Amino acid sequence: MSSLEEAETEETVTCLHMTFYHPCQEEKMMFRCLNFCRREQVRADELAKFGRDSNVCRYNLMDSRVSRIQFSLQFYRKLNSSELCFEIKNMSKKTKLIVDRTELGYLNKLDLPQKCTICFGDYQILAEIQEGESMDYFQTRLHLTEVPVLQERCLPSRQPVPESGIAYSLSPSQEKSPAEIDENES
């Protein structure tokens, strides 16, 4: 037998691509400690933490407005499934984390969608999961963009379109849930 026939089957690795944007990156260089355009291997049992504390976080954001630990990503396998996923958890007591349009308060967590935006403060991150098979580790590949991720992605509006076909755009302050009002109140 040849050595090729005896070699183990190569296993694919899950890769989390993250594209970072901040409007002041050019002048403040808050992403200067991140390794861009290079795959980085992370053990499956490690939390991938993002924040300003270089002693705790693997991915450092050099900005005093960022929490010591802003958020963490946990790689895991779903119960009774071979599906590998990421769970994102907000670790900041001061700043809400928005994943697509879901707001996460302190210690709230959810499964990271296959492709989504992660926002906090003026930070925008486009996260895309490239599926793999390895359960021992995953990879991250970070990218930097000068174009706002939300603009680049052109997120579709999740507002219902009336039968007239004319959709009205709401400002962020108008996107709150409807409030129930007593009929006697004006």
What does this structure look like?
About 15% of the residues have low confidence. This protein has about 190 residues and is mostly beta strands. The protein has three helices and twelve strands. It has one domain: Sandwich (Tumour Suppressor Smad4). The strands form two sheets. It has a seven-stranded mixed sheet with strand order 2-12-1-11-10-7-8. Strand 10 and strand 11 form a beta hairpin.
Query: Could you tell me the radius of gyration in angstroms?
Result: 20 Å
Order of helices and strands: HEHEEEEEEEEEEEH
Q: Which architecture does the CATH hierarchy give at level 2?
A: Sandwich
Specify the helix fraction band. under 10%
Shape: globular
Structural class of the helices, strands and pairings? mainly beta
Main CATH class: Mainly Beta
Let me know the largest β-sheet.
7 strands, mixed
Task: Please count the beta strands (DSSP E, at least 2 residues each).
Answer: 12
Provide the number of structural domains: 1
**Which regions are unreliable across 5 or more consecutive residues at pLDDT < 50?**
155-178
CATH topology: Tumour Suppressor Smad4
